Amino acid sequence: MKRINALLAGSIIALSLAGCSDDDDDVVVVDPPAPAPEYANVRVIHASSDAPLVNITANDAILNGLEGVDYQVASGRFEVEVGTYDIGVTAILPGDDAEVLQADLTLDADTNYDVFAVGSVADNTLMLLPVTSAETAVEAGNVQVQIVHAASMAPTVDIYVTAPGADLSAEQPIVTAAFMDATDLIQVPAGEYQIRITLPGTTTVAFDSGTVPLPDGGDLLVAATNNVGTGESPVTLLVADGTSSSMIWDVNATADIRVVHGISDAPAVDVIANNALTLVDGAAFLAATDYISVAADDYLIDVAADADNSIVPIDDAMITVEQGKFYTAIANNTLAMPELDLLMDMPRDIATEVQVRIIHASPDAGDVDIYVTGDGMIDSVDPAFAGVGYSTDMLAETGYVSLAAGDYYVTVTAAGTKTAAIETGMLSLAAGSIYTAIAVDGTNDGDAPQLILLDDF
């Protein structure tokens, strides 16, 4: 409406000037209206698996609200007036943020620009990859697809898009693509398809989507990205439809769960799913398992005494785990009032930062303050996290806190005091690493709380 109103306003002014002339013979010269602006279509995709969250700028201003964009996220498609823009990618870093990528991009009318951040921070191959296509209507009954190889850790591959279950030996790949290659726009009849990726000239499948629906009228960008989820496939497909984006995991990808025994007065336990599948056998207090792969599904979890499975302190606790995701299940509280909490993990290493996560699972500790310092001295500093309480609804945690690499001390005190209940001593924390600590009760009555250390500790 603003464009329409501007044209109307100009016409009214011109007519008014003509009507006010004292001499009907005078000629009033009216400048023609400026041509309507033209627009390109832009979408931005974060496809660098070891890069932090980023902000996207155009001519030094945030572009279309694109702040804090995470890996494997594509923006919606939006219009930008044609012209040349200074496109920047600013990494969100501990301390000062920094522009890490810059390129001048000329936008033409009626053209789609999918701007990828690809490559790796760690090996200094981070770059911008603009993928262009002509704005093209999708014919009735069809779906339009453009495929991009944006997985820096994957080699040149053959990509097949076939009817579900088709014999690959009788099919031809839709494209053989090296890293950063992209197809033209491809229209196929809408319906169910199977997307498989192999090494060139082979039918050994490295990625299998299973059966996926490609909707009538859909206009899809499908990008192979480095897999940071579960499963053995090197890639996960990022699908963007112009409004939002989603992931297609390899059909064999699992949900991965690890189990922590955090009940100090409980004996060694077995963890049993659906009364049939033993996930953990004989875990003692303070034990933490490696990740265990299970099918994505709903489960009823029993935590039973290892010595006698008829003693079940936690009976039929319902959990739901999703394909491609990682989880930590923590048995906590006391033997008289046991709890099982399921937390989602995000174990993506980020080359520019340390990630620290602290989970409060100690009922004896009560409300605590958590300090993260460079020298262990807390008398004159405020806690990084204040008044963190133990909760029987859902365990309180810091989330993944980004720090610069270096030496740190973590100190936990009773809330509002400077009296240390837990002191770690100096921790040398490396960039590209994840450190998880779970505070639990002391082993014996009256003992101070202690930490269970996970991941890269």
Helix content: under 10%
Rg, nearest Å: 29 Å
Spatial separation of the terminal alpha carbons:
58 Å
Structural class: mainly beta
Binned strand content: over 45%
Reported CATH architecture of the largest domain: Sandwich
Quick one: biggest sheet?
5 strands, mixed
Q: Count every helix, treating DSSP H or I runs of 4 or more residues as helices.
A: 1
Topology:
Elements: H1 2-19, E1 39-46, E2 54-58, E3 61-62, E4 73-74, E5 78-81, E6 83-91, E7 98-107, E8 111-118, E9 127-134, E10 142-149, E11 157-162, E12 175-177, E13 186-189, E14 191-198, E15 205-214, E16 219-226, E17 235-240, E18 245-248, E19 255-261, E20 269-273, E21 277-283, E22 292-294, E23 297-305, E24 314-321, E25 326-333, E26 338-345, E27 354-360, E28 368-373, E29 385-388, E30 396-397, E31 401-403, E32 406-414, E33 420-429, E34 433-440, E35 450-455
Parallel strand pairs: 1-8, 10-16, 19-25, 27-34
Antiparallel strand pairs: 1-4, 1-5, 2-3, 2-6, 6-7, 8-9, 10-13, 11-12, 11-14, 14-15, 16-17, 17-18, 19-22, 20-21, 20-23, 23-24, 25-26, 27-30, 27-31, 28-29, 28-32, 32-33, 34-35
